[in-house]
Structures are given as C-alpha cells and as structure tokens.
Design goal:
The chain is built from three helices and no strands. It is an all-alpha fold.
C-alpha cells in the first residue's frame, strides 16, 4: 500500500510541476484533449496503461 501512495504522490508532484512551469501550455493541452475524438484518446490511454504496467513489471520483477 505504501508503494501505491508513493506513486500517487509522484503523480501529484509531476502534475503540479507541469501546471507551475507553464499553466498556459497546460490549459492549451486540456483544450486540445477536449476537442480530440474519443478513439485516439482511448488508444493513448490503453497504451499508457500498458507502458506503466511494463515498467512496474520490470521494476518489481
């Protein structure tokens, strides 16, 4: 459970850094996501989940 909380904390740190470093770029990116069709977004989500799963699998062995 502590690993999950560390990972969640890192997500917040990374998200916070993106918004702190360039809030206007983050807003533009969100607008582009809202206008994008669902199909490609779904594929990006699945791909990201698979990459994350592979990283966890490699690190945890």
């Amino acid at each position: 459970m502590s690993d999950f909380l560390v990972a969640l904390g890192l997500v917040f740190v990374i998200e916070g850094l993106v918004f702190a470093a360039s809030p206007s770029a983050a807003k533009r990116a969100m607008m582009q996501v809202l206008e994008a069709p669902e199909g490609p977004l779904r594929m990006i989500g699945i791909g990201s989940a698979l990459v994350g799963l592979v990283i966890v699998w490699l690190v945890r062995g």
